[in-house]
Amino acid sequence: MAELTTTKLDPDTHLILDQPLLRLPHELLRKNLKSAQRQIELANKSITTSITASATAHSTPAETLASLDATLAKAQNLKRKLEALHAEERTLHRQQKARIRHLQDLHEIPSLADVKYDVWSHVRLDRLLVDYLLRQGYVESARQLAAGKGVEELVDIAVFEECGKIDAALRGGDVREALAWCGENKQALKKINSNLELELRLQQFIELARTGEMGKLMDAIIHARKHLAGGADTEFGLRAGGLLAHPPDTLVEPYRGMYSRQRYTTLASLFLQTHHTLFSLPAQPLLHIALSAGLSALKTPTCHSVHNHNIGTSSAGHFNSNAASLTGTPLCPICSTELNELARAVPYAHHTKSFMEEDPVVLPNGRVYGRERLRGLNEKLGTGKGRVRDPVEGLGGLEWREEEVKKVFIS
Amino acid sequence: MEAILAAHEALESKSNLSKALSDVDALISMLQTARDDVSNGSDKPVLHIAKLKNPLKQSFDRIEDDLKEVNKGLNQYQKALKDKFKSSTLPTAGVGGESGLGSAEQKGLVERAIAMHLLREGKFDVASTFVKEINAASANETYREEDDMQDLAKGHLQKKFADMYHILDALRNQHNLTPAIEWARNHSAELENRGSNLEFELSRLRFVELYTSATSQGSFSGPLQALDYARTTFPSFSNRYMRETSALLGSLAFSPDLGSSPYKTLFLNSTAWEDVSASFSSTYLTTLSLPSRSPLHTACTAGTIALPTLLKVERIIAERHGQWTSVNELPVETPLPSGYLFHSIFVCPVSKEQTTDVNPPMMLPCGHVIAKESLEGHARGKHRVKCPYCPLEARTTEAKRVFI
User: Fold this and answer.
1) Which of A176, A227, B340, B348 could in theory staple to A201 by disulfide, Cβ–Cβ 3.0 to 4.6 A?
2) What pTM was estimated for this model as a whole?
């Protein structure tokens, strides 16, 4: 059986949520390399052809010179492009380094009880928060928080910002940016068998068909031949063909659905999903994963009990006290107004052993305290000798004789 | 981590585009030379260019090789990553679905928690940007209800936290007690009712401060000011802090030579300001019914500690029961550091279940406690029941609900 408490810190399992931190820059480096490869390929082809062309032609020296100048310009252009990519690469390397160091820090912390763990976990929370803010599209807040906490190297503002822009454009009915993105990531998309581009092309086709004009319908057919017929997936071509037979106000499925504006929302979700898969980003905000597990691990049946005196908003109940008291124990985060409602639906933690203060005693009102703590709290309250109060009730509650406090046996 | 670090260093030092760039430079200078030759009136320009063909091909081959090197580095890094993070699956339970944190209804609550966390951290500017962005977003999405985010940022809470930081700043950084004492005096009755020592602690520190200050006007002016302060302030504490106040006043007798007096520890306490700051902020937050540490931080940290266990369980029960969120209790224990236990926990020794409002803990007259359902099961409908842990018998009606 597991223990009630632990301070063991196993960095390998502890870093479950932190994989994307290292994976994303890596994917970006790959993308960067792919761009470099493409640039070089293009330059290679065009430079070689122009040299070959000028070598065979019986041209004047002036023409040769001009052709060489053009070639030189191409090479210069390649250099500029590569320099930009190299700069990007350096930025990514720096980011990678900062992230590795951040994770390395955790490996050097001996236990969960160490103060350094507290510092580290605060940085992680900042990261999770920025990740959440970015995913919800609160870019400005994310930027400010990251800058305020000095965690810019550990978060991916630029990636999410671009992603958010494309997402918003799609929701607004514009597929151009998404298509451009598909173009940039063509090979990677092919690798994961994504049909995002086909869906986007189909959407363009749908828009042409929606007009119902003969000329546009012809364009639609040409568009379909160009973009929807090539692949192994014939389904897109078939759907496109079928659509032509149905006017925009059709009630026949799936064509009614294809004409629907709702399709843009679907496309946006598909885009997000594809984007996150491609960059090894989890589909859910990391904050949700950490938080839902944490709420459960901390929650006890007491946290939503009507007798809980810590909940500021709880209605009367047996003990009428709507303010927290300084009973010496720290306030429970689940009982606090910050998380109480949020934790209502999650399961509470599983325990197989009771967890009690030393030497428990019970007051006449049924509330149980550790004897020593009860004494200390009554001293702070200034209760008279031989008398005792329930610290939760404070000075407003009843006062009893000390003999009325009974020992209670809890196993 | 070492393997990742090594792979990263290889990337930084070798496997990057700098080599390709220098090869492109070589290509450019080669073209440049050819161009210069042609423009200098070389007689056979065509031949010149024809001669370029081979070196051109070679230099592009070289550049491509350079990139292959980068690719190799990336592959090595990826391998190191894969060795480090064996499983890439993340838990999904509790996140999606109707009641999950991802649902529209819970989104408001998550964001409220974030806003409160930002305020608590003193990030007022971020919090206000955040609320602005939320409002802008919800203006577009009509289905989202207006929540209390607006007054969260504008009003009450932000002011409370701003006040707290103001007082804390004075206390911790400027060693200025005045704002804190003023706050404590205004909340005097409340603090007393909660058994807080804060007001007295602050006054004591003021006494010490006066005592040891102002040596320029003669060595007695400090103690005299302290005495004066004690006369006006301490009477209100006399009941609860009789012993402490008399100790403070007693120290006056030793004023020239405190270091060797029995009151030394009262005066030469280097952490006094830090202590009183911590005491102030936790008291302040408690009067707002807020925990002294950020609940969001506590919950997220607890979550990451519990995740490996939950993940393992999720894998095991996925085929059989669905998710761990589908029941009202987690299926396994998720041990946390002791600082993460906030309530006493009572597990009925008979049924091994935690007690709840529906099935509360009941104390028999002998002082043994079991869950209500266990008691009823044990009594089997009779009016008398024997305690399962001692020979005592009692009427079932004598069992008393206790609050643990």
Assistant:
1) A227
2) 0.84
